[in-house]
């Protein structure tokens, strides 16, 4: 069974830069997995940030960017703001119409 | 603008079934897939499957096969997710989200606000 891995938690200072990653229990993530990223604050529905590795969803500020770093997908937030404090989830496409969520990263801005 | 409006909260007993609806507006319903994703209290997001409103074709996560049925009514631009043989660990918020499908790796684009399903005796 394929497991998508994310850091359980991360912290960043206001104005700082943070990179969250999304990996596979076995193997490397490439653009062929079409990594996407979602932001969720408590009690709210998820919001789509990034799709197809590095395409920003409509209305998403360019402080958010996606990439492949080494063998993982990555979400980088530059100039972190207080309202970036959220849970972040990645999704990978495994083929045959199947997608899987990572376990999520809780980002603290302090 | 694109909007997905979900049905209201449900309380069900163990062993029962629940059917959640997701009404789309602001776009041609048959042009985009609908995913269903759930989130148990304090837990992460979990993909359940999708339906192609154009063909009615479905793809379910292995975990839910045999217990979930996704359907649509194109006349009402509405997708449905029915989960049967409910257990207490099915207590969760259920979200629908639209998707361009295979073109961009089935990513979720616009999300509904969620439907809380509580399973309790």
Task: Provide keyphrases for this structure.
heterodimer; A: 110 residues; mainly beta; seven-stranded mixed beta sheet; four-stranded antiparallel beta sheet; B: 121 residues; six-stranded mixed beta sheet; 10 strands; globular
Task: State the gist of this model.
The complex is a heterodimer of chains A (110) and B (121). Chain A has 110 residues and is an all-beta fold.
Describe this structure in words.
The complex is a heterodimer of chains A (110) and B (121). With 110 residues, chain A is mostly beta strands. Chain A contains no helices and 11 strands. Chain A has strands at 4-6, 9-12, 18-24, 36-40, 47-51, 55-56, 64-69, 72-77, 87-95, 98-101, 105-109. In chain A, strands 2, 4, 5, 6, 9, 10 and 11 form a 7-stranded mixed sheet that branches. In chain A, strands 1-3-8-7 form a 4-stranded antiparallel sheet, with no helix packed on it. Chain B has 121 residues and is mainly beta. Chain B has strands spanning 3-6, 10-12, 18-25, 33-39, 45-51, 58-60, 68-73, 78-83, 92-99, 115-119. In chain B, a hairpin with a 5-residue loop joins strand 4 (33-39) and strand 5. The mean pLDDT of chain B is 97.
